[in-house]
Amino acid sequence: MIRRILPPYLTYAESFDDATDEPLFPEEAAVVEHAVEKRRREFTTGRICARRALRRLGRPAAPLLPGAHGEPQWPAGIVGSITHCAGYRGVVVGEAPQAASIGIDAEPNEPLPGTLLESISQLDERSDVDMLRRAYPGVRWDRLLFSVKEAVYKTWFTLTGAWLGFDATLVRLHPREWTGTFAANLLVPGPEVAGEKIDTFSGRWVLSRGVLLTAIVVPGPLRADHRHAAALDR
């Protein structure tokens, strides 16, 4: 499913239920030793998907442990992202010369609870959501906006190692039939990649099997000529 919104030079693995065919490494199992069952299952399947994706790049299986902020610590020379929600687990990885950063997020196609939309969005974004709800009622646009901002944060953190609040971006959603693109304009100074300052993260989204998926890819040095279009040229 996620391959529909990725450039062809990346590798992925995904699952629509929890995998039980491979055990965790002892170091990984220790991370979720005291977690609730739901967390253990999603963590385990995410790590199994990561191994599968890395094997497709010719990388051996090894423990994939979280860093100080919970981020996956990928093997040297690898960039990647993990996501999970009810009914979906996915991983995307690439070689560092090809990709500088990857951010993916999965969310159920359901409304955001309570007043969460107000706390994660700008006024212009909420106006767009209202308009899109009327035009395309099958997509939960508030949830999609949230998913985009989650993907933005993952992409940003890989490049900077710093926090980024929901109010630090202005997202524009561009719909098609059950899929589309988006642009997240940074309202704070952006990072520099291969000598170029980034002020916008562009990506793609898709709705399938009741799951909203978003993906952002910042091309690495080998793809620098396609930096602005890499997420869209499919």
Automatic annotation (TrEMBL):
CoA binds at residues 39, 47, 83-84, 105, 150, 154, 164. GO terms for biological process: enterobactin biosynthetic process. One of its GO terms (molecular function) is magnesium ion binding. Residues 27-93 form the 4'-phosphopantetheinyl transferase N-terminal domain. Its cofactor is Mg(2+). Residues 101-175 form the 4'-phosphopantetheinyl transferase domain. It comes from the Bacteria. GO terms for cellular component: enterobactin synthetase complex; plasma membrane. The keyword Metal-binding applies. Mg(2+) binds at residues 105-107. Keywords: Magnesium, Metal-binding, Transferase. PANTHER family: ENTEROBACTIN SYNTHASE COMPONENT D. This is 4'-phosphopantetheinyl transferase.
